[in-house]
Design goal:
The complex is a heterodimer of chains A (113) and B (112). Chain A has 113 residues and is mostly beta strands. Chain A is built from no helices and eleven strands. In chain A, the strands form two sheets. In chain A, strands 2, 4, 5, 6, 9, 10 and 11 form a seven-stranded mixed sheet that branches. In chain A, strands 1-3-8-7 form a four-stranded antiparallel sheet, with no helix packed on it. Chain B is globular, with a radius of gyration of 13 Å. Classes of the chains: A mainly beta (113), B mainly beta (112).
């Protein structure tokens, strides 16, 4: 079972470059999320999509944009990368947004130099 | 948002039970208690969740105090594979978004 798949696994960007992190889930889940995790910290929500066609800001949305391409895919875009965006990014999905378990991808380790 | 307090780290011996505590003194009546764990270099993994009653599943048990101001995650027989950071998180079902507020968690060290 693939679950939640993120690409790429590692990426190094120069300040000012742009890139898109891809996420896909094969569990027919309605809700999808993007989190970032800085060293020694818990996860912080960047954006989420409660259902196909909707997206909303989380705790730390500045510097990011998202697209819910279809029910399976939810991408995160950095338009102009900054060193402060160096982090590990996790995509997650859940059946709905109420009280169900979330499934996480393996993460994308992004370094901005 | 109600917050949780967990010890930074705990050690346990392999094949012994582990009790991971979590304090949440400002919990509201609509807050569910979630536990996730994160193995090294992996994404978080759901462990268990509950509201008022104790809960059991194949991975662990969740014991919730009667006043709900604290809870304990119980791993009945720890293995080396259980070494991870364990997060205790509150989730208010009234929230219009799905926002899990993550703390720093408890790093569980299992000694062979």
């Amino acid at each position: 079972n693939a679950g939640v798949t993120q690409t790429p696994k590692f990426q190094v960007l120069k300040t000012g470059q742009s890139m898109t992190l891809q996420c896909a889930q094969d569990m027919n889940h309605n809700s999808m999320y993007w989190y970032r995790q800085d060293p020694g910290m818990g996860l912080r929500l960047i954006y989420y999509s409660a259902s196909e066609g909707t997206t909303d800001k989380g705790e730390v949305p500045n510097g990011y944009n998202v697209s819910r391409l279809n029910k399976r895919e939810f991408s995160l875009r950095l338009e102009s990368a900054a060193p402060s965006q160096t982090s590990v990014y996790f995509c997650a999905s859940s059946r709905d947004r109420v009280v169900t378990e979330a499934f996480f991808g393996q993460g994308t380790r992004l370094t901005v130099v | 948002d109600a917050k949780t307090t967990q010890p930074n780290s705990m050690e346990s011996n392999e094949e012994e039970p582990v009790h991971l505590p979590c304090n949440h003194s400002t919990i509201s009546g609509t807050d569910y208690i979630h536990w996730y764990r994160q193995l090294p270099s992996q994404g978080p993994e759901y462990v268990i969740h509950g509201l008022t009653s104790n809960v059991n599943n194949r991975m662990a048990s969740l014991a919730i105090a009667e006043d709900r101001k604290s809870s304990t995650l119980i791993l009945h027989r720890a293995t080396l594979r259980d070494a991870a950071v364990y997060y205790c998180i509150l989730r208010d079902v009234r929230d219009s978004n799905y926002q899990l507020i993550w703390g720093a968690g408890t790093k569980l060290i299992i000694k062979p």
